[in-house]
Structures are given as structure tokens and as C-alpha cells.
Amino acid sequence: MRLRKFEFFSPTSLMEAVELLAQHKAKAKVIGGGTDLIIQMKQKLIHPGLIINLLEILELKGIEKNSDGLRVGSMVNHSTLESSALLCEGWKILAAGSHQVGSPQIRNLGTLGGNLCNASPSADTAPPLLVLEAKANIVSPRGERVLPLESFFVGPGITVLEKDEILKEVTIPAMPQNSTSAYLKLGRRKSPDLALVSTAVILTLNPQTRICERARVALGSVSPTPMRAKNTEKFLMGRILDGNVIREAGDIAKRECCPISDIRASAEYRREMVRVFTERAIKQALN
Question: What was the pLDDT predicted at 1?
Fold first, then answer.
């Protein structure tokens, strides 16, 4: 399928890219790996007159550990994330999420920024980043702004990004001591597929009493945006996570989500799978 003609720019600095985007606004689209954008163009869903390639901008690349935690550039691809030794130092749930993105070919091309900015409710990196309490660093001609990733998503395919803004990086705080995590995804088949339900869990346990001192739970594909299950988190904190508590947490998560029925699954099925996968993710984190 042939694409409509467009201009192509490949800036080497973030400021140059931002200025191009500000100049052309609605006419322009940015591209990283292109695994979403090219498909949308082929399907005639969008018709950009100008495409700005971000892959040559060094400021948007790299994974760096610092005193505050971790910085991940928006143009880091999923293959790099899933194999990163740095992520194994406390952020391996993000590597687990990146490992679930598509096929190896897609992970070699697709970027973290693309996965987030496409704003799919089923984005595999979103639930891990939500439980990690990540922040988005956004750049525009007006400067930079930082906001919690939880505030980044507005609706299906919609983020807070203005027409002249670019997601520069994601920053992630250090994991609390005595914390453990798990990310689980349900698809219709074993081959690469969009999530019907996904669950990310981080638990911080007192090493002596085994009481849960901190809990973070996030769900994908069961609301208009990836979501934190805050009622489930509150229930888990201050408790010893035995079988009864885990089952009740699954029931709370089931009541907390708001899925839709579509061609891939019914809302009722998704709710029940939220219960099942929340229980499984807690058990996997504990084990």
C-alpha cells in the first residue's frame, strides 16, 4: 500500500526538532521506530505532510542511573530495555513489560516513547511505569515540564502532549528496599498480541513481620487509559499477604476496573481476568 507524499526531516538536536514541530504543528508528526505511525499512515488514518525523525537525537537516547533513580530516553528501543543490566538493579519490571511488546522485530524498532505516546490502553510498558511511579519529561519551545506518568494519559490514543511538545525521557525513582515485582499479560494467543488484560504489581514487605508496607498495582486494557488500582493498593498495605488477603485483593481490583466489550473480549471476561491476574501477579511477586 502506497503512502501519500510527505517531507522528511532528521534533526540532530532536540531543540531543532521542537522548532520544526512548533513551525508545522498539525501538519507534522514525529517518528521513532515507526511501528505504530507507519501502520496508521498505510491505513489512511492520518496524513502528515511532514515527518520529523527523532532517532538521530542523542538527548533522547540512553539509560542512565543517578542519585535519584533512573533516566530512560524516549528513543530507547524495547530490545535494549528488556536486556538492560541497569534495569536488573531494581527496575526489572520495566524490562518484563518491554519483553511483552510485539515480536523481536518490533522490539528492535519500537521505542519506549512511541509505546507511551501512542496511548493505547494496552501499552505493555505503561503498567510497569505506573507502579514504578515514573515521571514524564516533556519539551517544547516554552521549556520543559515534568509530570507524573499517571497524568500523561488522557484517553485512548490521547496524551497531554501539545502539538509542539516532545516526550524527552522518563525518570524513575529508586525502588524501596525489600521490594519485589511482577508483570503479567493475557493475550488471545501465545504469539505477539495486544493485551486483553495486564497487571503490574510492586510490593514492599517488612523482612521481619512480612507485613506489606507499600503496594502499587496497575492495570492495562481495562479502562480508557492504563490505570492505578488504588483501592487494591490501600487494601494490601498493612496486611500479611496470605491466601484470603490475596483473593480479596483480586476481587477489589475486579470491581475497580471499567473495561469495555469489543471484538477481542467481553467486559465481563476482562473483569474476571483482572481478578485472576491480580492474584497471580501478587503470588508471583511474593515467590
Answer: 64
